[in-house]
């Protein structure tokens, strides 16, 4: 093989390796209004660095949770695409190693980093969550209108006759 062909083959191999390495990486994607918000952007970066191995959240480019119950591992954390969180819940989980304390390290981030991660998660977690259906009982019509029992008063504020009916 000539030097020129060897150089071309090496270049092609390196170019192909670089292309494969770039596949599968995802960037942080924040809402337009949050791109200038330093705390939320910093929280997204810290989440991507420290939490993405075990948790999933598209906004942070994180794909650490199992996508199928058959693929689930003990270290898989919640999928935050479908699980809504509040700031206080996130801070509790960070300080205490999650809610079960079994896998997540306590204080995986601290101080301002923890505050920013909590702020970021409270805003971006749960965006793909589906609302559960509101159950209807056999005693309640599907439209949600309240049925009155026989003999009940139409006005609940009306004075009672003292008999409890």
Brief descriptors of the model:
165 residues
Helix content class = 25-40%
Order of helices and strands: HHEEHH
What is the 3D shape?
A: extended
The largest sheet is:
2 strands, antiparallel
Low-confidence spans: pLDDT under 50, at least 5 residues?
17-25
Sheet with the most strands: spatial strand order: 1-2
Spatial extent as radius of gyration: 27 Å
Mean pLDDT: 75
Count of runs of 4 or more consecutive helical residues = 4
Description:
The chain has 165 residues and is mainly α. 35% of the residues lie in helices and 2% in strands. It contains four helices and two strands, in the order H-H-E-E-H-H. The protein has helices spanning 3-22, 38-50, 87-96, 111-124; strands spanning 56-57, 62-63. A two-stranded antiparallel sheet has the order 1-2. A hairpin with a 4-residue loop joins strand 1 and strand 2. Helix 3 (87-96) packs across helix 4 (111-124). The chain starts with a helix and ends in a 41-residue tail after the last helix. Mean pLDDT is 75; it is low at 17-25.
């Amino acid at each position: 093989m000539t030097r020129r062909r060897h150089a071309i083959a090496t270049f092609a191999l390196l170019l192909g390796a670089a292309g494969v390495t770039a596949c599968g990486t995802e960037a942080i994607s924040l809402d337009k209004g949050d791109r200038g918000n330093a705390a939320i952007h910093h929280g997204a970066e810290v989440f991507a660095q420290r939490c993405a191995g075990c948790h999933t959240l598209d906004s942070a480019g994180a794909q650490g949770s199992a996508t199928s119950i058959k693929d689930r591992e003990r270290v898989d954390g919640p999928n935050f695409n479908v699980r809504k969180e509040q700031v206080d819940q996130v801070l509790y989980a960070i300080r205490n190693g999650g809610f079960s304390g079994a896998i997540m390290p306590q204080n995986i981030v601290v101080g301002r980093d923890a505050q920013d991660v909590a702020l970021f998660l409270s805003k971006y977690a749960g965006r793909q969550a589906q609302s559960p259906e509101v159950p209807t009982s056999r005693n309640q019509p599907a439209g949600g209108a309240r049925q009155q029992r026989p003999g009940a008063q139409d006005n609940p504020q009306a004075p009672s006759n003292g008999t409890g009916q």
